[in-house]
Specification:
With about 100 residues, chain A is mostly helical. Chain A is about 65% helix and about 0% strand. Chain B is globular and about 90 Å long. The chains are: A mainly alpha (about 100), B alpha/beta (about 950). At the A-B interface, helix 1, helix 2, helix 3, helix 5 and helix 6 of A face helix 8, helix 9 and helix 22 of B.
């Protein structure tokens, strides 16, 4: 997998996290990876992450694959069409309150 | 608003707790044992005449002016060198003393010019004051004969006379006015610790000399200004005072350069800044300064400063100057359009670590409340984000544990990946002072930095590790401490989780962490690792100071944890003289992190997923805050390249020059539809901007900065913003243009909001800071005076957490194509991307970035000192001139990144810290070869930059 595109970087980043937690006590490993990604990865990164996991051959470390089960699936509006329903100028003026 | 005058007690305060009572001129006074009679007098309100004494340094006893008489003792001892004794009766004014002092003054003045009216020190001259104090009315010797004053004596050349030395850009040295009190020489030794000055000759031939009779600029002088401050005459004086005259009022403010956060008096005449003088009551700097804070403020009035807002449709268009209203309305409309078109998460912001806490707070508030997402980040991403992560995980707070005063109590200092003499010079001076008193030093750094060996400083151990092997070396230090039983079991049992310690101890004790094994990959001799570990564990109070050489690696966060483990294992936490001290890069990088600049954290380091925290802000702001983390800077750029991130508001940061892998950054910026840059100058990032909002300098606004020791210091406005608005006002106006109902009338109201929402700031307010001078957070009901030292009775997180730190080699590896390792850093006279310092006279010390290369590597490649070389990595190539030096080990090259033409970050890669995405600036595999001139990239870049800086209706700048 090329490292020069965003997906390639995502795989590398996940595997780097896994590498750290691999050296931790066994009970903490999978939870550690999942917590880290939940805490720091923005929804569209997690969305791309799940697509790569489901694709199956992205090159993730096995711990990352195991952690995927407890990584939060991004919900929420990410598509422009959905977002446009949420955002109109009146709401922008009021600050968001959706 | 008067000129703040500080009392000079003549000699330093005594630390003794034993008190002594004596009588001075009939006044009974009680002072600590060891206090000088001079200081005791001053404390009693009696100023004994003096010239060579000042409380910034030890007494010297040379001027013979401060004589006193003591009942029952013969002679007239110097009050500066004579300590107090119980029951003595001191007279500071008798006929005998008056006669002797007047005679001494008469001799001084007989060899001093009488141009007082036209002298630059007129109104601020201690010699003049003392002549007045002792009642000098006549100089019986006349002014002829042997002297240092006149260029010619009776037509013949006067060999004792020397011309003015004006080589330093900021101050002059006029030997004709020198009274050889040695204050400058002693300031250079005792305060700065450089030893650049000396007294040459003896008797009447004595004179002050920079180095070996050199001029100041060619000498080892680092232009810290301590000698200028110490000089009682006009011999050493600021050129700005010569040009402008004496200041008439002053305000105390905080330097806007590095994370030391020095306090200065901004001395003013009207709205013109006459000079910056370090403030003795400044708790971070204790009256000392460096060349940047003291002198390099000229950028604030530099002709390239942009004072009007500008917009353009495409980045290939010239800029068009517009009104503030138009610029802000345009920006607001663009962000709305982008969010409508591409979704709420398609825009974000970057807060500035150079701006105030209040300004940073407003930018993250604008993103969270106005943009409705958490896409906010700050430059700490690229410097100390691993510190936040690592110390948060082990100790429970994302900050250093000590104050700077702590260094006065340390016995063994370990510096890892930091170069304090260049990056944090005022701290370095304080550290050197402690080392001269006998504290021991361990340096872990690939380069032989100045701290390894400089006058009166010699490291006991220098561990010149291969870049990228920090975790291995620090874990190996722990291996020695554990396997040799040098750990502090009592401390660990009390303060940490014992079973976690046992797990960690078993881990570090594994044979592959032994110094002998680690030597193979780090290149550090095993005996040095063992020696350093033993010294640190057994040498008394052990403190660790570290910098970006720790954090800017693939394993940056892991190294921070390893450092925390080391401090806990040796019991070096929770009292003066010990601790883990990150040396923060920018003036307010600590503050910007505290203020919720990270995409996953609200102010006070509280995760956005925490309902209770969001609730506090949601109620106050009247909005719903996203509970999902936002994008970090590198993620924003990735998302931009992928097409889902379209607009960014960047306050006071130059990501194109400072962030790694320039080509990726420029591709990301180019892919956005609305890039808004708020800065003093058209920086490199502005080449890709559509809106430029002019920023204000730290002299032009009120606010606070938080330094590396968590100290909240006031920034005070001393002049009107030349661009019309302080940066917090610009952000507020942008928020208003976007429809938010913000009505702050003063930054103090923003601080009140911070205090109301953030427990660690609960007691902070401008009135409280006025009263206290400064406080270190946490500052709340539990710690009303602030917290100089953290984790005193236990860790913030409860029990200190030991975490296993396995070394993993970085993916950035040398090979046949790129056989050398490049590491980057900074130098004393320049700051960060140089946007400020390059626009001051500091360029005389560093007009270009150079590539440091070992003589062996240079010879192998046919590279000569000063010749152009091509520097290549897998990310890109650039050219710069070589500097051949043994400071770098064979196989390692080094450069700074202060100049945009060098483009050092074209070379650095997009590898980053596993936990925080902090870029791996410190390790890049490169090749070096001779070159004829700039690379094609540099040529293209220059042209693009030139084109993008055009302003419609204005001639292109000549330079």
């Amino acid at each position: 997998m090329s490292l020069d595109n965003t997906n390639g970087k995502l795989v590398r980043m996940a595997n780097q996290i896994a590498t750290f937690f691999k050296s931790q006590p066994e009970a903490e490993r999978i939870q550690g990876v999942a917590t880290h990604i939940n805490k720091f990865w923005e929804p569209r990164m997690r969305k791309a992450f799940f697509e790569l996991v489901e694709q199956g051959d992205a090159g993730f470390d096995p711990i990352v694959i195991s952690a995927a089960a407890i990584i939060k699936r991004p919900g929420g509006p990410a598509q422009p069409s959905e977002a446009s329903e949420h955002i109109d100028s009146a709401m922008l003026e009021a600050g968001f309150s959706d | 608003m008067p000129l703040i005058s500080e009392i000079d007690f003549g000699t330093p305060a005594s630390r003794s707790e034993k008190m002594v009572t004596l009588t001075i001129d009939g006044n009974e006074i009680t002072v600590p044992e060891g206090t000088s009679i001079m200081r005791a007098s001053m404390e009693a309100g009696i100023e004994v005449p003096k010239l060579c004494a000042t409380d910034m340094m030890d007494s010297f006893g040379s001027c013979r002016l401060c004589l006193v008489e003591i009942e029952g003792r013969g002679g007239m001892p110097a009050s500066c060198t004579t300590p107090v004794a119980p029951g003595i009766k001191v007279s500071t004014q008798t006929q005998r003393l008056k006669d002797v002092r007047r005679g001494v003054m008469e001799l001084y003045i007989s060899d001093h010019p009488l141009d007082c009216l036209t002298c630059a020190a007129n109104g601020d001259c201690e010699l003049q004051d003392m002549a007045g104090a002792v009642g000098l009315r006549d100089v019986r010797y006349g002014y002829d004969g042997d002297n240092h004053v006149k260029a010619r004596n009776d037509g013949a050349i006067n060999i004792k006379w020397s011309p003015k030395d004006e080589t330093n850009p900021y101050f002059t040295f006029d030997p004709a006015k020198c009274i050889v009190c040695s204050r400058c020489v002693r300031a250079c030794e005792e305060v700065q610790g450089t030893f650049a000055l000396t007294i040459e000759g003896r008797g009447f031939d004595s004179r002050v000399s920079a180095g070996m009779h050199e001029d100041f600029l060619s000498s080892e002088c680092v232009s810290c200004g301590a000698c200028v401050q110490a000089c009682p005459t006009a011999t050493l004086i600021e050129k700005s005072v010569i040009e402008i005259g004496q200041p008439e009022h002053s305000l105390v403010t905080t330097c806007a350069y590095c994370g030391v956060g020095c306090s200065f008096k901004a001395e003013m005449r009207g709205e013109e800044l006459v000079r910056m003088v370090p403030w003795k009551d400044g708790q971070a700097n204790r009256g000392h300064s460096c060349v940047k804070g003291r002198f390099a403020y000229g950028y604030s009035t530099h002709k390239e400063r942009i004072l009007n807002p500008m917009i353009r449709e495409k980045i290939s268009d010239p800029w068009r100057e517009v009104s503030w209203e138009e610029a802000l309305a345009h920006t607001a409309a663009e962000f709305r359009r982008l969010q409508y078109q591409y979704g709420r998460d398609s825009v974000g912001g970057i807060t500035s670590s150079r701006c105030t806490n209040e300004e940073t707070y407003l930018v993250q508030k604008l993103v969270r409340a106005g943009f409705g997402n958490n896409n906010v980040d700050t430059c700490a991403r690229v410097c100390h984000s691993p510190t936040g992560y690592g110390l948060g995980a082990t100790f429970g707070t994302s900050a250093g544990t000590q104050n700077f005063d702590s260094v006065e109590h340390t016995d063994v200092v370990m510096i890892i990946g930091a170069n304090p003499t260049d990056g944090h010079p005022v701290f370095a001076s304080r550290l050197k002072k402690r080392l001269r008193q006998g504290a021991k030093l361990i340096v872990v750094d690939p380069r032989r930095i100045d701290m390894v060996s400089s006058p009166h400083v010699k490291a006991s151990h220098h561990l010149p590790l291969r870049p990228g092997t920090n975790v291995a070396v620090v874990t190996s230090l722990a291996h020695v401490i554990v396997t040799e039983g040098l750990y502090d079991e009592k401390f660990i049992r009390e303060r940490c989780d014992w079973s976690e310690f046992e797990d960690w101890a078993a881990f570090v004790a594994e044979p592959h962490h032994s110094p002998e094994e680690v030597e193979k990959l780090s290149g550090v001799p095993a005996e040095e690792i063992r020696g350093a570990a033993r010294l640190f564990a057994t040498g008394g109070n052990g403190s660790i100071y570290y910098g970006l050489g720790v954090t800017e690696h693939s394993q940056g966060s892991t190294t921070v944890m390893a450092i925390a483990n080391l401090a806990m294992a040796t019991g070096n936490i929770g009292r003066p003289g010990v601790g883990v001290n990150p040396l923060r890069g920018q003036n307010n990088v600590q503050g910007s992190c505290d203020m919720g600049s990270f995409p996953h954290e609200l102010p006070g380091y509280r995760h956005v997923s925490d309902d209770a925290t969001r609730d506090i802000f949601e109620k106050l702001w009247g909005v719903t805050i996203s509970n999902e983390p936002g994008l970090r800077i590198p993620n924003m750029l990735d998302a931009a390249v992928d097409g889902s991130f379209k607009g960014i508001y960047i306050q006071g940061e130059d990501i194109l020059q400072s962030d790694p892998d320039t080509k990726h950054v420029s591709a990301g910026l180019a892919a956005m539809e609305c890039v808004v840059v708020q800065d003093l100058f058209l920086n490199e990032t502005a080449n890709y901007a559509h809106v430029f909002l002019p920023g204000s300098t730290f002299l032009e606004k009120d606010g606070t900065f938080t330094n590396a020791e968590r100290r909240i210091n006031r920034v005070r406005k001393v002049m009107t913003p030349r661009n019309g608005y302080a940066d917090w006002e610009v952000t507020q106006n942008l928020a208003k243009a976007m429809g938010l109902d913000w009505n702050y009338t003063h930054p103090s109201e923003i601080m009140d909001e911070i205090a109301a929402t953030t427990p660690s700031f609960a007691m902070v307010s401008y009135s409280y800071l006025e009263k206290m001078g400064s406080v270190q957070w946490p500052c709340n009901e539990k710690a009303p005076l602030g917290s100089p030292i953290m984790h005193v009775n236990g860790f913030v997180r409860g029990k200190g957490k030991f975490i296993r730190t396995e070394y993993v080699a970085t993916d950035e590896k040398t090979g046949p194509r790129f056989p050398l390792l490049l590491t980057t850093g900074r130098i004393l006279s320049q700051y960060n991307v140089g946007a400020q310092t390059r626009r001051t006279d500091n360029v005389v010390w560093h007009e270009e970035d150079r590539l440091e290369i070992h003589p062996n590597d240079a010879e192998l490649r046919g590279v000569h000192d000063g010749s152009w070389v091509k520097l290549m990595s897998r990310a890109g190539d650039t050219t710069l001139r070589a500097l051949i030096t043994e400071r770098v080990a064979p196989g390692v090259v080094y450069t700074t990144f202060h100049h945009p033409t060098t483009q050092a970050n074209v070379i650095t890669t997009d590898f980053s810290d596993w936990a925080t995405n902090c870029p791996e600036y410190k390790v890049t595999a490169v090749q070096v070869s001779p070159s004829n001139g700039p690379s094609q990239w540099q040529v293209d870049y220059d042209e693009q930059a030139r084109q993008s800086r055009r302003i419609a209706g204005k001639m292109e700048a000549a330079e």
